[in-house]
Amino acid sequence: MVDVAIHRLHDRSQEPFPMIDVYSWPTPNGHKIHIMLEECGLAYKVHPINIGAGDQFGEDFLKISPNNKIPAIVDPDGPDGKPISLFESGAILLYLAGKTGKFLPEDVRGKYDALQWLMFQMGGVGPMLGQAHHFRMYAPQQIEYAINRYTNEAKRLYGVIDKQLSEHAWLAGSEYSVADIATFPWLRSWQNQGVELDDYPHLKRWFLEIAERPAVQRGVAVLAQERKPLSGDKEREILFGATQYQRR
């Protein structure tokens, strides 16, 4: 396991919960959890998992995240007072919302409004924009069909969000929630997705408002200095080649 970086981005000396261990990297899925922790005011330690160097395949990390993906957390103060480990960013967001009572509406209708938009991010926004990034920026061959398919899907998803935000302040209605926290980091790379933010004025309003939140600014700064552009074939192979598909 890599060395631990301790993050106390502002004073949390009165924090009632023990410090949470976060195994992460500065990607959209990682930033979801960094932002949520900051918004909730929780103390945490970040363990960088350099996915370009293959840290995600380490034995210790696989015990926490068997799908070899970041982020993952270990909370020493789980629901029963015992440590709990979690992988999958959506599950972690819901866990932290439950732990703190924040960013998931208490009323039943509001909760399901937030959950459906969180699932929209998990099942649509993340996977499809991830494919747009891959084929537009990282694929070894420029495949016109794939580029067009995923760029057009990115634009369609932006349109769905824009329509929702033309009628509501936030994705799930009148409250800022886990749905907004989950979706925002994926839209920070809108230029790489072939999207013009000005084409989606309601989404742009929402995006800029979230970007101004101090907790969000702290969250996206976590590990940001660690991430570098892909530097060679070895990193590409680790991320996209046979290494990714080995049985472990």
Automatic annotation (TrEMBL):
Q: Which UniProt keywords apply?
A: Transferase
* UniProt cross-references to SUPFAM superfamilies, sorted A to Z: GST C-terminal domain-like, Thioredoxin-like
Enzyme Commission designation: 2.5.1.18
Pfam entry (one): GST_C
The chain positions of domain GST N-terminal read 17-104
Q: What class of enzyme is it?
A: transferase
- Cross-referenced InterPro entries, in alphabetical order? Glutathione-S-Trfase_C-like, Glutathione-S-Trfase_C_sf, Glutathione_S-Trfase, Glutathione_S-Trfase_N, GST_C, Thioredoxin-like_sf
* Residue span, GST C-terminal domain: 107-230
The GO terms describing molecular function are: glutathione transferase activity
Superkingdom as given in the UniProt entry: Bacteria
The family classification in the record reads: Belongs to the GST superfamily.
Output this protein's name. Answer: Glutathione S-transferase
Q: What is the lineage of its organism?
A: Bacteria, Pseudomonadati, Pseudomonadota, Betaproteobacteria, Burkholderiales
